Amino acid sequence: MKTIKNILLLAFIGITFVACSSDDDVPEQINEEETITTMTITLVPVGGGTSIILQSQDLDGDGPNTPNKTVSGNLTANTTYSGSVVFLNETESPAEDITEEVEEEDEEHQVLYVASGSITSVSYDDADGNGNPVGLEFTIVTGDAGNASLSATLRHEPKKPNDGTLEDAGGETDFTEIFSLTVE
Amino acid sequence: MFCIALIASVSFIGYSQECNNVLSGQVIDYHNKSPLDSAYILILENQLETSTNSEGKFRIPNLCSGSYTLEVSHPECSTVLMSVQVNGDKEIDIKLEHHLEELEEVKVVGNIIRDKTNSAQEETLNLNTLENYSAGNLGDALKELGGVSSLNTGANIVKPAIHGLNGSRVLVLNDGVRMQDMEWGAEHAPTLDINSAGSVSVIKGASALQYGGDAIGGVIVAEQANIPKRDSIYGKTMLSGVTNGRGGNVVSELTKSYESGWFVKGQGSYKRMGDHEAPDYVLSNTGVQEIAASLQLGKHNFTWGWDARYSYFNTEIAILRASHIGNVDDLIRSINSGEPGIIRPFTYDLQNPRQEVTHHLGKLKFYKRFEGLGKWNVQYDFQSNRRFEYDIRRGERDNTPSIDLELTTHTLSTDFKWDTKDDLNILVGLMGRYQDNFANPDTGVRRLIPDYEKIDFGSFLIGEYRVNNQFLLDAGVRYDYNKIDALKFYRTSRWEERGYDEEFQDLVVEDLGTQLLVNPILDFHNISATIGGKYLSFDGMQLKLNYAVAQRAPNPSELFSDGLHHSAARIELGDLRIENETSHKITTTLEKDFSTWGVLLEPYANWVQNFIVLEPTGVEFTVRGSFPVWEYRQTNARLLGVDFSAYSNWTDNWTTNHKFSFVKGQDTATNTPLINVPAANLRNSVSFSKPKWNGFEASLESQYVFRQNETPDNITVFSPQQQEDVVLEINTPPDAYHLLAFRSKMEFPISNKTKLTTSLSINNLLNTSYRDYLNRQRLFADDLGRNITLQLKLNY
Predict the structure, then answer these.
(1) How many structural domains comprise chain A?
(2) How many CA atoms lie within 13 A of A9 on its CB side?
(3) N or C: more exposed end of chain B, with fewer CB within 10 A?
(4) Neighbours of B515 (CB within 10 A)
(5) Residues in chain B within 8 Å Cβ distance of A60
C-alpha cells in the first residue's frame, strides 16, 4: 500500500513536470499608446501675416534621445497671435492625435503657458465644462522687439482652477517644452 | 525533538492465564540501533518499574495477562507512552530517537522551534508575536528582531531587509517552498500572509545552504505549527480592529488531527482598510485589501509521511496618490512643499496608482525514514504569481494595467539526511526549477521586465559534527546553475546608447525599425560554502562563529530594466553585462544568560565583490521634462554592523528589554556610503505581567531611530522649469525620531477548551510626525500617525 502511494506520488510529480515544457512563443511588440512624441504650436497673427510654427519632437519617447526643437521664424513686434496646439503620437502609423484625448478629458488636463521677455501676455481662449481654461486655444501678445521665451506644459490632473503658474497647478507633466524666440 | 517508541517485533513465547508472565526486551536507538542504557520503564497500571542495563535490556516478571501502558523515558528523550498486550511471556523492542539534535533541545527549553543552522546568527518570532501583527504584515513583525529592517513603499508594502540588504538578497521560505514572487522590485513585498505561519525564523546570512546559495542578506523561514498526532479538533478565530485606516481583519483556522497521523487544516483571512493617516493629514489613496486562504492535509508518521498544501494570497494595495509624479520638476516641488500635493477626504476606495498581486502555491511533500540510515524528503511545488500595476493614465485606460506580469514556477527538490551517527549529521540535496515569465502586451506600455524562461539547478552537501557535548562544528557547500533565456524588445536608440550594438549585435533576432527584438541567453554558475562552530559552556554561555561565501546571479530587473518609473520619477536601466556578485560574511554570536538577566551580542562583517547597486548616474531629457537616470552597476561593498540585545527580570512581574542595531555600508571602490542602509535603531521596553490577573500583560516600548548620516550625495539636475541646474535632494535623510508604543493583553478561559484573549495596542502613542529614511514615500508625505488596535482572539 505504502509503495503504491509512493509510486503514485512520484508519477504525479513527473507528469506535472513534463506538462510544463517550454514553449518558445515570440512576444508581441508593444507600441506605447500614451506616448506623446510631438507638440506643435501654431501662432497665427490676427489680421494676417506669416504663421509661426513651434515644434518639439522626440520619436524615441522615454528613450535616450533628446527632443528636437524647431521654430519656423521670428515673431512680429506688437502683434496679437491666435495660438493652437496639437499633440501627436508619431510612433504609430498613421500618427495618433492625442489632442483629442485631451479634449475628451478637458477637466483633467490643462496646457499652461508661461511667457517672458517681449511676449507681454498670454490668455486662454477655451474652457472645460466647469469654465476653467484648457489651453488648446490661446492668444499671445508681443511687445517691442527683443528676445522672448514661451513654455508650454501639458499637465494631467492639475488643480483647477489655478493661478496659471506651474507651481500652483500641480499635477503630472505629460509634455513640457520651452522655446526661445526673437521678436522683431 | 520527538522521541517516539515503536513496537517493531512481537513474538509469543508461551500462553498462560496466570500472573507469571514475563515482559522483556531492549530499548534501542532508532537511528543507529545502538542499545540505550539507563532507560526507565514504568507500568502505569501496577507501578512496576525497571531500567535498562548497559546492553539496553530490561525484564519485568510476574505480570498478569492483560493490557498495560508503559511509560518509557530516557535522560535525553522526552517521555513516551505505549500500550502493550500481554498474554504470556513477551519480548519487545522499544526504539527511541536519540541523536545529535538533542543538544538543541537543551538550548531551546520551552521553544519548540528548532534552529535551522548550527553556527549562524538566527532568531525566531513565535506565534504570539506574529498574532500581534495579524492586521499588519510580515515585514513589520520581522522588525522586532535585531538586525532586521525594511524598505517600505508606504505602510502596506514592506520589504524585509536583513543586515541592510533586501530584495533578491533575502530569500523567503514559505513552508519549505522558496517564494518566487518578483522580489526584484523595490515596491514588491513578499506575497505571504503573516497569519498563515506558525513561526518565522530569520537566518542572518547565507549559511543555511539547504534553502539556497544566494542569500547574501539572509533567509526568512516561515513554518507551519506542528500538528499533534492524536485525535483532536481545534482552532482559533481572531478579530482585529484598527483606527488608522479605519478597518481591520479577521482570521480563522481549524485543524483536525488523528492518532493515525492523518491531519487536515484550513485557514483563511481577510483584511480591509481605507486611507491611512499621518498626524496632520490623510494619506490619500493608501488603503488595502487582502484575502488569503490555505488548505493542508496529509499523514505524518515517524517512519514516513506525506502532506499537500495549497495556499492562495491576493492583495490590492493603493499607492499614495501624491507619490505619482510627472518629471523632475514635479519631484522638486514635492520635496520642497513638505506635504503631499494631493490630500483628499478619507475613503475606503482603492484608486490608481495601485497594484494587485495574486499568488498561488501548491506543494506536495513525501518523506521516509530508513532505519539505521536517515530521512529522505522529496518535494514538488508550483507557484503562480500575477502582478498588475495600475497607473494614472489618459483616456479610458484606468482599468488597464500598466504592468501585467505572470510568473510561473515549478520546483522539484529532494534531500537525504544521514543522522545515524551520534556525532555526525550529513544532509545532501538536489533541486531543479523551471520558471516562465510572461509580460502581457495588452497593457499598451512597453515591458519593464521581458518575457523569459529560467532554469535553475542546485545541489548541496551540509555536515554537522559534534566534537563533544560542548562543541559543534558545521560546514557546507552548494553549487547553483542559472540560465535565463529572454526575449526582449529594445528601443534601437537605447540599444545603441548602451553600446550593445557593438557587443551583443548577434543576439538581435529581428529589426523592427525603431525597436529590436533581442534574445539574450545568460548562464551563471554560483558556488557557496559555509563553515562554522558553536561552543556551549557549562555556565550557560554560547559562542558561535560562522563564515559564509555566497554567490548570487543578477535578477531580471538588474539585467533588463529599461524604462521610466513614475513613482520614483526616474529612468531605471539594467545592464546585460552584469555578472554574479560574491559575498564573504563573518558573523559571531555571544550569548550569556545569568539568573535574572542575559545579553546577546552579534557583530558581523560582509564584504561583497561585484555588488550590484542601483544609483543615479545622470539625466535624460524627454518630452515630459528631465529625469534622473538610475543605472545598475557593479562595485565592491562592505557592510559592518552589530546587533545587541539584553533583558532583565527585575522582579517576578517586571521585565525590561533592550535592543540596539547598527550597520555601516560603504562602497569601497568609490569610498562613498551605500544607499538605503538602515539607520541605527534603539528599542527599550518595560513589561509588567501578572498571570494571576487573567494572564495580564502590559508593556511600553520606546523606539529611537537615529538620523542616517551616511548617505550618497544628492545629484544635480537641470530643471527645465527653472532653466537652471538644481540640487535634487533625493538622498537627504530625514531627521531622527522617537516613537512610543503600548500593548496590553488579558486572557479569559470560557470553558475547558475555549479561551478568549483580548489585547489592546497603541502604536505611535504621542502621534508624532516623522519620516523614515527607508520609506520610499518619505519624499512626499509623513509616516503613519497614532494607531490603536483592539484584538479579540478565541481559541477553541
Answers:
(1) 1
(2) 23
(3) C
(4) 23
(5) 491-494, 514
Residues 6+ apart with CB under 8 A from B601: B589, B590, B591, B642, B643, B644
Which residues in chain A are contacts of B723 at CB distance < 8 A? 178
What cell does B366 get?
A: 513525501
Sign of CA dihedral B563, B565, B566, B570: negative
Assess if residue A6 is contained within a domain.
Answer: no
* Least CB–CB distance from B621: residue in A26, A67, A174: A67
Check CB contact under 8 Å for B625 and A176.
yes
pLDDT at A168: 85
Q: Which of B286, B318, B351 is nearest to B787 (CA)?
A: B286
Give the pTM: 0.84
- The domain of B42 spans 11-98
End-of-domain residue from the set B98, B131, B165? B98
Q: Residue A2 falls within a domain, yes or no?
A: no
The answer to whether the Cβ–Cβ distance between A29 and B571 falls below 8 Å is no
* Domain carrying residue A79: 29-183
Instruction: ipTM value, please give it.
Output: 0.78
Residue of A nearest to B496 (CA): A64
**Residue of A32, A34, A69, A112 for testing the chain B interface, max B β-carbons within 10 Å:** A34
B120: three-class secondary structure by DSSP: coil
- DSSP for B605-638, please give it: EEEEEEEEEEEEEEEEEETTEEEEEEEEEEEEEE
For residue B100, give the C-alpha cell. 545529535
**CB neighbour list of residue B734: distance below 8 Å, 6 or more residues apart:** B707, B770, B771, B772, B773, B778
Separation of alpha carbons B48 and B50, rounded Å: 7
Average pLDDT of chain B, as a whole number: 88
Q: In what order do the strands lie in the sheet with A109-117?
A: A109-117, A146-156, A172-183
Q: What's B681's domain CATH number?
A: 2.40.170.20
DSSP β-ladder status, B262-273 and B90-96: unpaired
- Give the CA angle between residues B159, B160, B162 to the nearest 5°: 145
- Is B678 inside any structural domain? yes
Question: Which chain B residues contact residue A91 at CB under 8 A?
Answer: 514
Give residue for cell 539584553: B646
Q: Are residues B374 and B237 in the same domain?
A: yes
Which stretches does DSSP call E strand in B372-422? 374-390, 403-418
Determine, for residues A91 and B436 on separate chains, whether the beta-carbon distance falls below 8 Å. no
Residue B603, class by beta-carbon neighbours within 10 Å (0-12 exposed, 13-18 middle, 19+ buried)?
middle
Record the cell numbers describing residue B312, joined without a space.
Answer: 492562495
- Residue in this structure with the C-alpha cell 506605447, named with its chain if needed: A32
pLDDT > 70 in chain B, percent: 94
pLDDT bracket for residue B12 (50, 70, 90): very low
Does residue B110 belong to any structural domain of this protein?
A: no
- The answer to whether B696 touches B744, Cβ cutoff 8 Å, is yes
Burial class of residue A140 (count of CB atoms within 10 Å of its CB; 0-12, 13-18, 19+): buried
Is there a contact between B505 and B491 (Cβ–Cβ < 8 Å)?
no
The predicted-structure confidence for B165-201, as pLDDT tens digits, reads as follows: 999 999 999 999 999 999 988 889 999 999 999 999 9
Strand partners, B306: B299, B366
